[in-house]
Write a structure and sequence with these properties.
This protein has 403 residues and is mainly beta. It contains 3 helices and 27 strands. Strands 3, 4, 5, 7, 8 and 9 form a 6-stranded antiparallel beta sheet that branches.
Length: 403
C-alpha cells in the first residue's frame, strides 16, 4: 500500500509538471536544407531557409502581443542567445491563426549587438566570419509576453541540424605518382573534381611547383617555395600548353588546387586546399601511340557489376567507377588497380542506380588515356508480397518485408 501511495503521488507530480509546460503559444523553428555554415544565408536572399511558425492555441484570448528570443546550441552547449535588453519588433498573434516569420524579418536576431556569446564562441569570431564552426546544432525561438517582460508563453520546438565544411578538390589527372610524356609542342591536361558544394560560386587556384633538389618532400616545396606557375579559374580542367613555363625532362613536379568561395565565405575544410599530387615528366611514353583501352561490363543483379577488358601489355589496370551524377550532385571516383587479371567484380552498389566506369593501362609508371565511359545500371530492388510462391524459385531472393 505504501508503494501504491508513493506511485500515485509521483504520477500527480509528473502530471502537474506537464501542465505547467502547457503554453498558450506554439513556436516551431524550421531550417530548410542544404545547410550553410554562413549565417546570413538563412535570412538573406530569395530562398526562405529559416522560418519560425507561431500559433496561438488559447482560444479564450482574442490575441497576444509577443516578442521572440533566439537560442543556438552547438554540441549541447549554448553558444549564442538573444540579449535580454534587446527589444525586437513585436508580433501580434490572433487565436487559431498561424503566423510565419522568415527572411529579413529575422535578420535583427543575428546582429552581434543583440546577442550574448558563450561556450567558446566569441563575438570577435562571429563578426569576422559570420560563420559557425562545424558541429551538431539546435536552433530555437521562444515567445514572451510583450507586456509582461520575462514571462515565457511558448514552448521551444528546435530545429536540429549538422554543419560541416565542404571537402577540398579531389585531384584526378595526372594520376598522383605517375609519369607523363614530355610532348613537343607542350601539352598536358590537369583535372580535378569539386566536391559537396555549388560550382557556380567556386573558383580554383591552381599552383605547380618544381621538386628540387630531387628527393625533397613535395609538401615542404609547397610551403617554402614560390610556384613555377599559378592561375585562377572557374573550371575543373586546365590545359597546360606552349605558352606556360616549359616542363623539363626527368623533373618531378608537384601541384595543388585551392577552392575558394567567390563571396569570401569560409566554406571549405583545410582552407580549401587539396592534397598535393606529384608526377614526373619523361620523354619515353609506352602508350604514346596506343589506342584507347576497351572496357566491358554487365550488371550482376541489384548490387554488383562485373567489368572485363582485353589483355594488354601493361603492368596493371586502373579501373575507376562512380554513381552517375543526379540532382546536381557529382560523386567521387572510386579507384582500384588490378594486376594480372582482366576482370573484377564490384559489390555493395545501390540497387537501380546507373554507374559509369573507365579503364587505363599502367606500365613503368605511365598511364594510358582513359577508355570511353561505360555506363551500366544495376537491377532495381525487387519487392515481394508475403506468400508469393513464385519468388521462391529465384536464385537470388528479392528483398521482402515479410516477418
Amino acid at each position: 500500500m505504501k508503494t501504491l501511495y508513493f506511485l500515485i503521488i509521483l504520477l500527480c507530480s509528473y502530471t502537474g509538471a506537464l501542465q505547467a509546460q502547457d503554453y498558450p503559444v506554439s513556436a516551431s523553428t524550421q531550417i530548410i536544407p542544404p545547410y550553410s555554415l554562413y549565417l546570413p544565408d538563412y535570412y538573406t536572399g530569395v530562398d526562405e531557409k529559416l522560418r519560425v511558425i507561431l500559433l496561438q492555441r488559447d482560444l479564450t484570448q482574442a490575441g497576444y502581443d509577443i516578442s521572440l528570443a533566439m537560442t543556438l546550441e552547438r554540441n549541447g552547449t549554448v553558444i549564442m542567445r538573444t540579449i535580454p535588453t534587446f527589444h525586437p519588433q513585436p508580433v501580434t498573434l490572433n487565436a487559431g491563426v498561424p503566423v510565419i516569420i522568415s527572411g529579413t524579418a529575422l535578420a535583427e536576431y543575428f546582429m552581434a549587438d543583440n546577442l550574448l556569446f558563450s561556450g567558446g564562441y566569441s563575438r570577435e569570431e562571429y563578426e569576422r566570419t559570420r560563420s559557425l564552426p562545424e558541429g551538431s546544432y539546435r536552433l530555437s525561438f521562444q515567445a514572451y509576453d510583450l507586456h509582461r517582460p520575462g514571462i515565457q508563453i511558448s514552448n521551444a520546438i528546435a530545429s536540429v541540424f549538422f554543419l560541416q565544411k565542404s571537402d577540398p578538390p579531389l585531384l584526378n589527372l595526372p594520376v598522383c605518382g605517375s609519369k607523363v610524356e614530355k610532348r613537343e609542342p607542350q601539352f598536358l591536361t590537369f583535372n580535378w573534381s569539386g566536391r559537396n558544394t555549388s560550382q557556380a560560386n567556386t573558383s580554383y587556384t591552381f599552383s605547380l611547383y618544381e621538386v628540387k633538389p630531387a628527393g625533397t618532400n613535395p609538401d615542404y616545396i609547397i610551403r617554402s617555395t614560390r610556384p613555377l606557375y599559378t592561375t585562377t579559374t572557374d573550371n575543373t580542367t586546365l590545359l597546360y600548353g606552349p605558352t606556360e613555363p616549359a616542363l623539363i625532362d626527368s623533373m618531378q613536379y608537384v601541384w595543388i588546387v585551392q577552392a575558394t568561395d567567390k563571396e569570401g565565405k569560409d566554406l571549405y575544410s583545410n582552407q580549401g586546399y587539396s592534397h598535393s599530387c606529384t608526377f614526373t615528366c619523361l620523354a619515353a611514353n609506352p602508350f604514346a601511340h596506343a589506342e584507347k583501352p576497351l572496357l566491358y561490363g554487365t550488371a550482376q543483379g541489384e548490387r554488383k557489376i562485373r567489368y572485363h577488358w582485353p589483355h594488354a601489355a601493361a603492368d596493371a589496370y586502373r579501373l575507376q567507377y562512380r554513381a552517375v551524377a543526379r540532382d546536381n550532385i557529382t560523386f567521387d571516383w572510386q579507384t582500384i588497380e588490378i594486376k594480372g587479371d582482366t576482370t573484377t567484380l564490384i559489390s555493395s552498389l545501390e540497387a537501380g542506380r546507373a554507374y559509369e566506369a573507365q579503364l587505363q593501362w599502367k606500365s613503368s609508371g605511365f598511364y594510358s588515356t582513359n577508355s570511353d565511359l561505360l555506363t551500366i545500371s544495376t537491377a532495381p530492388l525487387q519487392m515481394v508480397v508475403c506468400g508469393d510462391a513464385a519468388m521462391l524459385s529465384l536464385p537470388t531472393k528479392p528483398y521482402s518485408l515479410c516477418s
